[in-house]
């Protein structure tokens, strides 16, 4: 068990100079602990990948984890997707109607869904539902010495506790994303056709024209990174949980907050990178929506 | 030990030397020094009791002995092998020769008692399920638990039952060295004595060496061949050794050292006064610092 490096604190000197010195010291301390934290998560991720490839997981450990991460998350992901699809229709309808382009709603809704909202929402729900639960569970195990017990019996806690959760998130987040996409498409269509009366044929024809397999696969591809990030960040918070109920609570909250921020950062950079990939294969650029 | 259990490596590489050697161990967490220059040689078959008040580093010493806490300096050698020099796999293998009884038992909440006790057997042996089950049943019988607990989860058990299940799990691989972390804390007097008796029973197993960390003098009197007393570092001067006593229980009772007498007799002395003064000093420092900020 490694201990985090300590940040030396400077004694207070008082006065404006002292105050300034304190602020600089605080900033330095913050930067150092941030770098140490990122380094820690990286080492943790590396160990997880090492154990992932070096020893096969047991079926009776994997299945319950997959069930909790995937199956139990389906309803909430489906519901979120459905509503987001409808909300997109509600928000874009007025603008498109003013231009007389209501039938193009299908392309806008479905493109936003499969490229952005489906993957990000599925990941957010997973981080909230599963990520914080994993951090709380592993945190409790840390606090009650169950992780030490695993080690004392010659079993590796990363192999036993982290790898199954990592695999669960990585393997199942694409399915959850597909579910969010599907329900969003359904919700958008329901609102546009049934409630707004947009023509069925043109709605789908426009969707087919502007949303292609690349857009769909791009969303799925991004979701893999989100799943891995959620599992690693949440398990890391659980493993480094501070003692007591407060420590466990903080681990759960931080697991969600940090996962969510990481999802958004990854989303931005993956988006930029994948657009470049798209341009490489299709130098003519994207088809114009309007 | 159940006849069906596996035969872990019983031979020792350095049969003549101590089973466990702690060599000038230093442990520091951040700026806080917890252990300073601790050296202990543990002979095979010995039962060592480590006494000391809360916060003196007993548990840290125990966890260092199995490599759960890495020393800042110094080394721990088990059967001549330095724990620090081993890679993960070798250390995991070496740990099968240890049994660790945790303070709160540390049973896995998500598993039944059967799966908990069977865990080390499933992890390190290829025994068929039926044999594992019978091994678990005899372990449970050894620590005096009814067979009906096997299907229960740890939360359904009382504190004493959990402790005994934790002991059964620690004994599953027929360890050479059993480490007990505060085995009787939080138990009623009768259950405390039951655990003491169990520690004595475990000692009867051939070639078992034990280390018991406790602050319970009754446990020390009942089970110890040898007693070591640790003293909190912040109460010691720079050069003073942290081990303030090393000998038999009889020697401990005869000792004239006021620090030892205070612990053995359980007297608060001027501790309460000291704690209040410390609190007042800290409050005064905070007030001065706040005043300095405002200026």
In short:
By secondary structure, chain A is mostly helical. Chain A has 9 helices and no strands.
Question: How would you sum up this structure, described in words?
Answer:
The complex is a heterodimer of chains A (290) and B (295). Chain A is mainly α and 290 residues long. Chain A is 82% helix and 0% strand. The radius of gyration of chain A is 23 Å and the shape is globular. In chain B, α3 runs parallel beside α5 (159-171) and α4 packs across α5. The longest helix of chain B has 24 residues, at 271-294. At the A-B interface, α1 and α5 of A face α2, α3 and α10 of B.
- Which strand-content bin applies to the residues of chain A? under 5%
Enumerate how many helices of chain B there are, as a single number: 10
Largest interface: A-B, 24 and 34 residues
- Oligomeric assembly: heterodimer
Q: If you average the pLDDT of chain A, what whole number results?
A: 89
> Percent helix among the residues of chain B?
25-40%
Indicate the mean pLDDT of chain B: 87
Q: How far apart, in Å, are the first and last alpha carbons of chain A?
A: 59 Å
Largest sheet of chain A: none
Structural class designation of chain B: alpha/beta
Gyration radius from CA atoms of chain B, angstroms: 21 Å
| Spatial shape of chain B | globular
Order of helices and strands of chain A: HHHHHHHHH
Chart the SSEs and their pairings:
The complex is a heterodimer of chains A (290) and B (295).
Chain A: H1 15-54, H2 59-69, H3 74-98, H4 105-143, H5 146-152, H6 157-195, H7 200-210, H8 213-239, H9 244-281
Chain B: E1 20-29, E2 32-42, E3 47-51, H1 58-65, E4 73-78, E5 81-82, H2 88-94, E6 98-101, H3 113-124, H4 129-142, H5 159-171, E7 177-181, H6 189-204, E8 209-213, H7 217-223, E9 226-230, E10 243-247, H8 249-254, H9 258-265, H10 271-294
Parallel strand pairs in B: 3-8, 3-9, 6-7, 7-8
Antiparallel strand pairs in B: 1-2, 1-4, 4-5, 9-10
Helix pairs in contact in B: 3-4, 3-5, 4-5
């Amino acid at each position: 068990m490694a201990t985090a490096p300590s940040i030396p604190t400077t004694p207070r000197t008082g006065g404006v100079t002292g105050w300034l010195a304190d602020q600089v010291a605080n900033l330095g301390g913050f930067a150092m602990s941030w770098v140490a934290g990122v380094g820690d998560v990286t080492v943790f991720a590396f160990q997880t990948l090492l154990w992932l490839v070096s020893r096969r997981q047991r079926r009776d450990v994997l299945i319950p984890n997959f069930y909790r991460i995937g199956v139990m998350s389906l309803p909430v992901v489906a519901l979120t997707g459905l509503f987001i699809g409808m909300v997109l229709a509600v928000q874009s309808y007025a603008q498109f109607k003013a231009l007389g382009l209501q039938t193009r709603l299908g392309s806008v809704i479905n493109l936003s869904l499969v490229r952005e909202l489906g993957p990000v929402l599925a990941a957010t729900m997973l981080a909230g539902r599963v990520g914080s639960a994993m951090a709380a569970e592993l945190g409790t195990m840390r606090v009650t010495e169950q992780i030490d017990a695993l080690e004392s019996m010659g079993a590796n806690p990363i192999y036993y506790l982290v790898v199954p959760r990592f695999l669960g998130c990585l393997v199942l987040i694409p399915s959850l994303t597909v579910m969010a996409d599907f329900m969003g498409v359904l919700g958008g269509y329901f609102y546009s056709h049934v409630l707004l009366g947009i023509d069925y044929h043109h709605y789908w024809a426009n969707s087919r024209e502007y949303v292609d397999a690349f857009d769909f696969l791009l969303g799925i591809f991004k979701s893999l990174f989100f799943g891995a990030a959620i599992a690693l960040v949440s398990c890391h918070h659980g493993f480094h949980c501070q003692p007591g109920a407060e420590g466990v609570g903080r681990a759960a909250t931080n697991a969600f907050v940090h996962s969510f921020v990481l999802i958004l950062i990854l989303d931005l950079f993956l988006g930029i990178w994948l657009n470049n990939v798209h341009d490489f294969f299709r130098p003519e650029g994207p088809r114009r929506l309007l | 030990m159940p006849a069906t259990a596996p035969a872990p490596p019983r031979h020792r590489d350095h049969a003549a030397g101590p089973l466990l050697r702690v060599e000038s161990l230093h442990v520091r967490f951040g700026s806080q020094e917890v252990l300073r220059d601790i050296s202990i040689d543990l002979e095979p078959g010995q039962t060592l009791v480590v006494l000391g008040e809360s916060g003196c580093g007993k548990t840290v010493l125990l966890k260092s002995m199995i490599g759960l806490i890495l020393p800042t300096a110094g080394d721990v050698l088990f059967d001549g092998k330095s724990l620090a020099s081993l890679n993960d796999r070798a250390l995991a293998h070496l740990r099968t020769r240890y049994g660790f009884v945790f303070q709160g038992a540390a049973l896995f909440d998500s598993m039944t008692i059967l799966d908990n006790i069977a865990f080390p057997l499933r992890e390190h042996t290829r025994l068929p399920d039926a044999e594992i089950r019978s091994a678990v049943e005899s372990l449970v019988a050894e620590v005096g638990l009814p067979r009906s607990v096997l299907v229960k989860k740890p939360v359904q058990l009382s504190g004493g039952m959990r402790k005994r299940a934790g002991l059964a799990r620690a004994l599953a691989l027929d360890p050479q060295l059993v480490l007990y972390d505060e085995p009787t804390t939080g138990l009623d007097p009768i259950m405390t004595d039951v655990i003491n008796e169990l520690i004595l029973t475990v000692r009867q197993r051939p070639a078992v060496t034990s280390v018991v960390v406790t602050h319970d003098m009754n446990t020390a009197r009942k089970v110890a061949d040898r007693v070591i007393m640790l003293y909190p570092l912040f109460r010691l001067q720079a050069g003073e050794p942290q081990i303030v006593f090393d000998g038999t229980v009889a020697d401990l009772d005869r000792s004239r050292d006021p620090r030892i007498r205070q612990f053995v007799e359980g007297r608060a002395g001027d501790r309460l006064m000291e704690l209040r003064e410390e609190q007042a000093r800290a409050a005064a420092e905070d007030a001065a610092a706040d005043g300095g900020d405002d200026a």
